[in-house]
């Protein structure tokens, strides 16, 4: 049993060391997903729909997928000797997640707060800021909404036929 513990510590330390250049991005995604989970849970509880295990499982699945994508990108970039480029790519993934999940978090808070209150108006303002100002600061997401989203949907729809 002691050897198993030692083995786990060694493997864990090695992985933490290997992924240390992207640890800030991984922590940001973890924090983002935690706030997303809590805001969704609060919205469900306060609006009377109750806690749903399926929804919670989906949130944790999304967390593992996002961190897995980040780790995969960094690992591939590291072994291709393109570590800085892979860090930039992980950063882009993180910014994309921040955009989409922040909008979801604020949307949940909009459903929680009573209409007409100052807090509701504040969340409406944040929803607008993230939806338009933040979007303008990330040209690749703007390009996706302008042309990429429709192109991808067209490709997927052609394959389904």
Radius of gyration: 19 Å
Q: Give a quick account of the main beta sheet: strands, pairing sense, barrel closure.
A: none
Mean pLDDT: 86
Low-confidence stretches: none
Termini gap: 55 Å
Kindly estimate the percentage of residues that lie in beta strands according to DSSP.
under 5%
H/E series: HHHHHH
Helix content: over 70%
Structural class: mainly alpha
Number of helices: 6
Q: Topology, pairings included?
A:
Blueprint: H1 2-18, H2 23-46, H3 53-79, H4 83-112, H5 118-137, H6 139-160
Helix pairs in contact: 2-3, 2-4, 3-4, 4-5
Structure summary:
By secondary structure, the chain is mainly α. The protein contains six helices and no strands.
What does it look like?
- The chain is globular, with a radius of gyration of 19 Å.
- The chain has six helices and no strands.
- The chain is mainly alpha-helical.
- Helix 2 runs antiparallel to helix 3 and helix 2 packs parallel to helix 4 (83-112).
Output the keywords.
mainly alpha, 161 residues, 0% strand, single chain
């Amino acid at each position: 049993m002691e050897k198993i513990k030692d083995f786990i510590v060694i493997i864990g330390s090695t992985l933490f060391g290997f992924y240390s250049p992207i640890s800030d991005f991984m922590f940001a995604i973890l924090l983002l997903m935690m706030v997303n989970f809590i805001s969704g849970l609060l919205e469900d509880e306060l609006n009377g729909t109750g806690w749903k295990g399926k929804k919670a499982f989906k949130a944790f699945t999304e967390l593992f997928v996002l961190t897995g994508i980040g780790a995969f990108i960094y690992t591939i970039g590291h072994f291709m000797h393109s570590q800085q480029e892979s860090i930039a790519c992980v950063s882009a993934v993180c910014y994309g997640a921040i955009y989409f999940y922040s909008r979801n978090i604020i949307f949940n808070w909009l459903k929680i707060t009573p209409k007409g209150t100052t807090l509701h108006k504040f969340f409406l303002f944040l929803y607008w800021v993230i939806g338009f100002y933040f979007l303008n600061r990330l040209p690749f997401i703007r390009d996706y909404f302008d042309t990429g989203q429709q192109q991808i949907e067209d490709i997927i729809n052609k394959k389904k036929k």
